[in-house]
Amino acid sequence: MRTSIATVCLSGTLEEKLRAAARAGFDGVEIFEQDLVVSPDSPEAIAKLAGELGISLDLYQPFRDLEGVEEAQFQKNLKRAETKFQLMARLGIDTILLCSNVGTATISDDGVVVEQLRRLGDLADSYGVNVAYEALAWGRFVSEYDHAWDLVKAADHPRIGTCLDSFHILSRNTDLSRIAEIPGEKIFFLQLADAPALTMDVLSWSRHHRVFPGEGAWDLSDFLTRIAATGYAGPVSLEVFNDSFRQSDTNRTAVDGLRSLRWLEASIADTPGKAAESQQSAGSAGPGSALDLQPLPEVEEPRGINYVELSTDDLGTLTRQMHQLGFQFIGYHRSKPHVQLWLRGQARIIVSEVTEEAGTTSAPVNGTFLRGIGFEVTDSQSAMDRAALLHAEEVPRDQAHDDEVLRGVFAPDGSEVFFHQFDAATPAWIKEFGHDHDEQVSHIDHVNLAQPSNHYDEAVLFYTSLLALHAQSSQDVPSPSGLVRSQVMSSTDGSVRMPLNVSPQPNAEAVAGRGIGSVVEAYPEHVAVACEDIFQAAATALSRGLDFLPVPQNYYEDLDSRFDLDLEFLQRLQENHVLYDWDEHGEFLHFYTSTIGSVFFEMIERRGDYLGFGAPDAPVRLAAQHRKNSQRGA
Amino acid sequence: MRTSIATVCLSGTLEEKLRAAARAGFDGVEIFEQDLVVSPDSPEAIAKLAGELGISLDLYQPFRDLEGVEEAQFQKNLKRAETKFQLMARLGIDTILLCSNVGTATISDDGVVVEQLRRLGDLADSYGVNVAYEALAWGRFVSEYDHAWDLVKAADHPRIGTCLDSFHILSRNTDLSRIAEIPGEKIFFLQLADAPALTMDVLSWSRHHRVFPGEGAWDLSDFLTRIAATGYAGPVSLEVFNDSFRQSDTNRTAVDGLRSLRWLEASIADTPGKAAESQQSAGSAGPGSALDLQPLPEVEEPRGINYVELSTDDLGTLTRQMHQLGFQFIGYHRSKPHVQLWLRGQARIIVSEVTEEAGTTSAPVNGTFLRGIGFEVTDSQSAMDRAALLHAEEVPRDQAHDDEVLRGVFAPDGSEVFFHQFDAATPAWIKEFGHDHDEQVSHIDHVNLAQPSNHYDEAVLFYTSLLALHAQSSQDVPSPSGLVRSQVMSSTDGSVRMPLNVSPQPNAEAVAGRGIGSVVEAYPEHVAVACEDIFQAAATALSRGLDFLPVPQNYYEDLDSRFDLDLEFLQRLQENHVLYDWDEHGEFLHFYTSTIGSVFFEMIERRGDYLGFGAPDAPVRLAAQHRKNSQRGA
What we know:
eight-stranded parallel β-barrel, lyase (chains A, B), Glyas_Bleomycin-R_OHBP_Dase (chains A, B)
């Protein structure tokens, strides 16, 4: 599948955009006119640079407000088009995007539009240019893809085709079945964008909130399958207007974009039956293979979180807290002198002490922070191969010759994601710490990660495409310093659950130690450990002197008014610093520890089939952490 | 007018919110339930603190999902209400907000709701509590204020009244005339919020985008006038859910909120006829004076920008650029040894050199930045008095005994706003620099100020309320590092024009030197000077070696395709680095200088009645500045 990206998706100068697209591995780009206008490089220099970078210039865009106008205006518009055709010759671009008229159309008459398209086609022909006519969702008289196609079909000119843009089509909820009527060779260009489900005016939605495929709410696999069935053989291009992407690192955004296309491509390539089916039902004769779709190594949903690795320069404080929570020290790694293993049943925490001599270039050096997560996957080699093809950066790692080979990649938040071969028995690597088995019933229930706000959508796609996790609907959680956006990524059976949290403080968006951006006040991350008896765990923790996160009396009084709780039970909750939630499936009991560096723990007990994370309690936690921070600051 | 604010408007802990509200000068607060639940302070401690701070606790809110339910559920709801009444007794609050049922209502029968309200009233009576029933815009069966009022009227219970919230009413575009039917004493509470004109689902609009009165698109003067006419005598309270306010400095937000109420109050108090009129037309007998509205000293729109003050630690570079632009050095201030005056016709620039010995506590010390603006007002004393009553902070200023008395305040972006007595003749203070008059035709056309993103709405209200400027519709301008939000504040005749720009880079939101937040890359500000002949100005500048901001060749080629320009004229533009725009009223020609510190200049010539600021050229400028910055960084 030939991949392309509109320069408007990326930040930076036009030159920076071209370099980023090429470095990420795109085959081509769409030149967004304004990027060229503000560039000091001539069209010839841009064409030359693209040649040197090995990327094609696939489209010049946009050309606006041509058709559906009176003759005098149309003459002017044709003249304006001609200057663009001349410019395209200098750029070496043979296709231009024509958007349906938004601003100047006065004639709602398909016959007039067809005739004007045909005349534009004649002019385009003299310059060897193809015109891809696209219905903007907010076009004055033409706003539906099938209307645009009817016009193109009626124009019946070899230089006039249509451009299909998933945003303009899916945002209007138009019936997709007529895509099958369009012969692939009359689709002159294909633009993809995903979008979150928002209820707002479509223009603002389009200009600010588009995201890459897999980062929104739409089924772009279905959409692309329908296009493939037409026999379309051109580039599959991303056109995403997104406020965050515009201000993010351009190389990261380009990689994110290409990942989305590779993932989407594979989602169709993996299911060849789907394309054939859709094609059949649409009655089209298109071969569906013209896109040359490449699969990726398959990945199934992870079976669980094998371990969490914490890095610390404050070993005593951290391991004391773990001991208070009932974790047992197992041993040091036989070949890594600063690495310990702690277990609580199946909950495994690796603690890497960062000492001055142990500091390597790859390891960040300060604080206590969540360094990585080991996921149990059914085929670790396949998962790693897939990750590499999805342009994830591999974690450099020293390994003794007889250690289990663990490979992993960096997530967008800088944490390390390792792929472990799933095995129902105790994992092999545990033996490297001199441990055989454990019988306590406890496991890692979920891990809560802080995300830099500009890379939030990237994170969703990362976990979706590499680990087949699913994005649940996001929530806003009030905190004393603003709303925290919380997005749970999870496997279907809930064995892997990761709430991703975006801090409201732009300066606090970095995770201490992982070296993403500047750190003012890191938003804390946590490991939630499930146990069988929260009161027993709390009693142990109390007796061992745990610094619980304080829960206000007002909270318990409010609990009493919200739920019809037994007074004795309520008292027991309060005495043990335990918070409580309830839904129709079951109950949730949990307590929090104080924060060390940027990490804290949560101990939880799920009763029945409670599926959530105690969302009503999150503001209580955030307020308590805010007070602790303020006290520390004072 | 008694003022109040919901704690949910402010960031921080409940204690911090109470202190901020009191410090700003509010008479009372609404306690938002969640703020209490997450607080470690008992209800009694909160009540005590409020007493010590001298603020009243006016409302407990919200109570949800009471009415329109089956009997068994209603019994539970009553019990839940009772726990809140008990809690309110501990807080010393006598009014609770009851929102129309959103989640659990199953019975769409006004009779049932009336009966349930009456029963709630009986229970409330036994606790001495008043219930203010409010129609939420997204209520299940009750979503209009007049429907809620009909229900309250039918319930006919002394403990049941209504709450009017401008958001829920104005967001639905409901006819306001029925407000006049409500006796003031049955309005148990009044909540005000403004909002920008957005097309989106009303729940998200309400939860994230409310702003203080004067910061949005609604006519709250009219709304409050109608309420005043009912004879309502209770607090006028702000209930504003806003993502930025939630993460901003709580004291600043509180001041911003109180300013909005004082401004709104005065807007009605200033026009006593209006309230009477509205009252008459509504046929109500309410006195309209129960709110005890206080006026503010009047301010008329400013007549012009008297001067701009630049502060610099690089005097030579700055004044060389000003000389290149045709500014003339006039002299040093007679009593301030580091302060120079430069003139170009009526365009006056004061240059304050910041030297190590001159550095005072109030003056920031580094860089070249825009320090302040002198506005010409018809009554400077009145403007200053008004500013003080609107809680603006006065600029401390040394003054020799025989100098003109200049007083001013700090704007939200840290710049200084000075009020000059308008006088058609040459301003008196100019003589302090040994200058009498000037004949060159030139003036300050506009000043472009960078705004910290979290204080954007505050800035709009500041200039509206202190200087009677008007907010024009905002625009997004693409730059290589993201979209720049641009909002023009101007006087009706255009003699004062200030585009306010919010940088897309959260870390770059500060203005160098003015000490707002941390500065990574300051978004540059500029002074635009109008001249009679842009080509002559450019020629002078060229001959004096000005470092023009470079304009790409591609820009001129695009100009050619956009406008039907004479080739010779186009060449002349290009040779002189002059950019060009056109609208139906006239033409705009302008060039930019390079940036010194965080300041640059723009020289402009307006032909005809062109009203804009060359918006299509702004991306060209931003891209060129980005390239210069990148080069400097490399």
